[in-house]
Amino acid sequence: MANMLFSEELEKWHKSSQPKTLAGLSDVFAERSFAIIILLLMSIPALPLPTGGITHIFELITALLTLEMIAGRKTIWLPAKWKKRELGETLKGKAIPFIVRRVRWFEKYSRPRFRRLLAHRDFARVAGLVLLIFTIAAFVAPPFSGLDTLPALGAVVVSLSLILGDAVIFLAGCAIGVSGIALIFILGEAALTAFKHFF
């Protein structure tokens, strides 16, 4: 699959008979597994849809993966139970086809800008830290507020930049994630001020 676009690779895996598990993803995509799994997991909280508490599970798994990136691991470690569990109908039936369409849009404009830098082991640690910050922001955002969407989307775009090897997309992801964090603080402060005013 070396000459295929990432969107084609992901679609081929999605339509194949291979197990739709994190372990299956890791086996197929090898060294890109960190970024790809984070992209898939964070795509759910990045969607402006009511998802209940399931997004917190994805965010906790993502946080563990980002810590492994910061530690410099080349291969993913997850509890065997997590790795072998099916991704679920939300991811398989809705999220992955949606992601494939969006990735195709990015691929039209993506170029290999500073690809070597993004592929460097030390940069992977920096990217892991950025992804961890965005994941924590999405996790602590007030439930049912929609404020987790932008930090999660920032994590998705940063992950995609690592897959496509495009530093411009990385910077765009950082801008989206930081904007989301700022929005959480601004609205949180406004809500606190209103609370103090009434009580």
The coarse overall form would be: globular
Instruction: Please mark out the parts with pLDDT under 50 across 5 or more consecutive residues, or reply none.
Output: none
Give the number of DSSP strands. 0
Distinct helical segment count = 10
What is the C-alpha radius of gyration, as a whole number of Å?
A: 17 Å
Mean pLDDT: 84
At a glance:
It contains ten helices and no strands. It has 199 residues and is mostly helical.
Which characteristics define this entry?
mainly alpha; 199 residues
Structural features, described:
The chain is an all-alpha fold and 199 residues long. The chain has one domain (6-198). Helix content is 74%, strand content 0%. The protein has helices at 6-15, 22-29, 33-46, 54-70, 80-84, 89-109, 115-119, 121-140, 149-164, 167-198. The mean pLDDT is 84.
Describe the protein's topology.
Elements: H1 6-15, H2 22-29, H3 33-46, H4 54-70, H5 80-84, H6 89-109, H7 115-119, H8 121-140, H9 149-164, H10 167-198
Helix pairs in contact: 1-6, 2-3, 3-4, 3-6, 3-9, 4-8, 8-9, 8-10, 9-10
